[in-house]
Design brief:
This protein is mainly beta and about 120 residues long. The chain has a 4-stranded antiparallel sheet with strand order 3-2-5-6, with no helix packed on it. The protein has a 3-stranded mixed sheet with strand order 4-1-7, with no helix packed on it. The chain starts with 8 loop residues before the first strand and ends in a 10-residue tail after the last strand. The relative contact order is 0.31. The N terminus is likely disordered.
Length: about 120
């Protein structure tokens, strides 16, 4: 089990949504050291309405931990670009961070759209 007791390190994970109106966030799932810590799905796109979601806030054993996030985005086109509504994109990323004994660690996962022709997500 990854969650520690009263001693150890405190860690908080935030989901930061900075996508523009071109995409709707349909689902998001977070895993800490391989264990699910947050999952939500809403195909209506209401997840995109929250710019910040606290997905984890608990004590962890000191040491290196791995955070993985999986998201499904749907295009949100207008006018001649309405065909984009039919496209979905699966985005995955992982990040290793260190939790230090007696210290608080905040990890902010920022999903945003890179602008420009032929540019993907970051």
């Amino acid at each position: 089990m990854i969650v520690g007791g009263s001693a150890g390190a405190r860690s908080t994970v935030y989901h930061m949504n900075n996508l523009g109106p071109s995409y709707n966030l349909e689902s998001v799932a977070y895993y800490l050291d391989g264990q699910s810590i947050y999952a939500k799905a809403d195909p209506t796109g209401s997840l995109a309405q929250s710019s910040e979601i606290k997905v984890f806030d608990a004590a962890l054993p000191p040491g290196t931990h791995t955070l993985q996030v999986n998201m499904v985005l749907r295009g949100n086109g207008r006018g001649v670009f309405s065909y984009v509504d039919e496209y979905t994109f699966k985005v995955s990323s992982s990040y290793a961070f260190s939790a230090m004994e007696g210290e608080a660690t905040a990890v902010k996962v920022n999903v945003h759209e890179k602008r420009g022709i032929g540019v993907g997500f970051a």
